[in-house]
Automatic annotation (TrEMBL):
It is found in: Cell membrane. GO terms for cellular component: plasma membrane. It comes from Actinocorallia herbida. It holds the Pfam family HisKA. SUPFAM superfamilies: ATPase domain of HSP90 chaperone/DNA topoisomerase II/histidine kinase (SSF55874), Homodimeric domain of signal transducing histidine kinase (SSF47384), PYP-like sensor domain (PAS domain) (SSF55785). Residues 192-400 form the Histidine kinase domain. PROSITE patterns: HIS_KIN. This is histidine kinase. It is an enzyme of class 2 (transferase).
Length: 401
């Protein structure tokens, strides 16, 4: 399994580091910790602090370390153990202990909610400082000052390492959350697709079965009904494939497109049965795939016609240095909780299912994906004039000559 960014950083730090649980069990150590303490990670991981002390575990060494870590958990602050003696087994001589002195820094590790999830332990050996005999040039007080300065430098380094580890942890958690969300959305999409495909498939199979069982059935009527089911299946599959291409970022050739001219052409092609009012400013040019932009505009116009009571209003203009397309209807409007939901795959409000039972619920999701693939946005809002109805607003970057 590949190491995470935090694990790589933890392992690469030159300072000896150990990560313990709130139960004071070793969870991670880096190579520097192994070298400094003379203990392998195999002999540390999964074991508690108490298990690692030779002899009487209730001795001064153990009690001092335990007190420090308990202060960390209680006070939620870093605790420093200055000049702490902890003897280490002599390499190659089991049972033979060598006198060693340490400055030990214990730092709390928090999760995003501010809960302590562990302790970062950094031992720094100071045996040479402790053993050095004072001479005429250095008195004991100066040695203490040297030790304090050394500890301050090490604490500063540990703080920086801790901050970097926390940033890496937060980043990894965000990536993990995003992946979980994507997997959940994919599952929902598969379930919705299965549901929408099942309807026409069931109708098609039922009609064919009836035709086979009834020799007197009108074959033309059966074929027409079967054709309608097949066309609906084709529409759903086609929309799913288009949405998959857009979500995968499949590029499309772009060119300068005159947005008001394209909108006018789509209005002629669609030939809405409702009254259409237009306000199309001249010369609003965008860089886009002409085919995909026409699909977007067609989806918005089809949606407006589906919900309009009697009138559709279409406007193209420049606002805040962006090309803007507004498509408004005088229908029931979109409730606030549904203004984002309408862009989810297969989401269809009750009135939409009633007005257009054959719809796929993919028109607006496809339209938004096209808008975003061109660096734009597509939003559903109330009408700016406060009249009943909905307004779908497309914003795209203007063409730069």
């Amino acid at each position: 399994m590949a190491k995470t960014e935090a694990e790589v950083l933890f392992e690469a730090v030159a300072a000896p580091l150990a990560y313990l649980s709130v139960e004071l069990v070793y969870l991670k150590v880096n190579r520097a910790y192994e070298r400094t303490t003379g203990r392998s990670r195999e002999g540390l991981l999964g074991r508690s602090v108490a298990e690692l002390f030779p002899g009487d575990e209730a001795g001064e060494e153990y009690l001092a370390l335990l007190d420090s870590m308990e202060r960390v958990l209680t006070d939620r602050e870093t605790d420093i153990m200055a000049v702490h003696r902890h003897d280490v087994e002599e390499p190659g001589s089991p049972g033979v202990l060598r006198e060693r002195y340490w400055n030990i820094t214990n730092t709390p590790i928090f999760d995003e909610e501010g809960k302590i999830v562990g302790i970062l332990n950094q031992p720094q050996e100071v045996t040479t400082f402790v053993r050095r005999e004072p001479d005429s040039a250095e008195f004991p007080e100066e040695r203490v000052e040297t030790l304090e300065a050394h500890m301050l430098a090490q604490t500063s380094q540990l703080h920086e390492v801790n901050q970097r580890l926390r940033r890496a942890q937060v980043k990894e958690r965000r990536v993990s959350d995003a992946l979980r969300k994507a997997v959940q959305e994919q599952r929902e999409a598969v379930a919705d697709a299965s549901h929408d495909l099942r309807g026409p498939l069931t109708g098609l199979l039922t009609r064919l079965q009836v035709a086979l069982d009834d020799p007197d059935a009108d074959p033309r009527e059966t074929l027409l009904a079967t054709l309608q089911d097949a066309e609906r299946l084709g529409d759903i599959v086609g929309d799913l494939l288009e949405l998959a291409r857009l979500e995968a970022g499949v590029p499309a050739d772009t060119e300068p497109v005159d947005l008001p001219v394209l909108v006018g052409g789509e209005l002629v092609h669609l030939a809405p049965r409702k009254t259409v009012r237009t306000h199309l400013d001249v010369g609003v040019i965008v860089d886009a795939s002409r085919v995909r932009l026409a699909r977007l505009v067609g989806n918005l116009l089809a949606n407006a016609e589906r919900h309009a009571a009697s009138r559709i209003e279409v406007a193209v203009l420049v606002r805040d240095r962006q090309a803007v397309l507004e498509v408004m209807d005088d229908g029931p409007g979109i409730p606030d909780p549904d203004k984002e939901a309408v862009f989810r795959r297969f989401y269809r409000r009750a009135d939409a299912r009633r007005l257009d039972p054959g719809g796929t619920g993919l028109g607006l999701p496809i339209a938004r994906q096209i808008a975003e693939s061109h660096g734009g946005t597509l939003q559903a809002t109330d009408r700016p004039d406060d009249l009943p109805g909905a307004c779908l607003t497309l914003r795209l970057p203007l063409h730069r000559p």
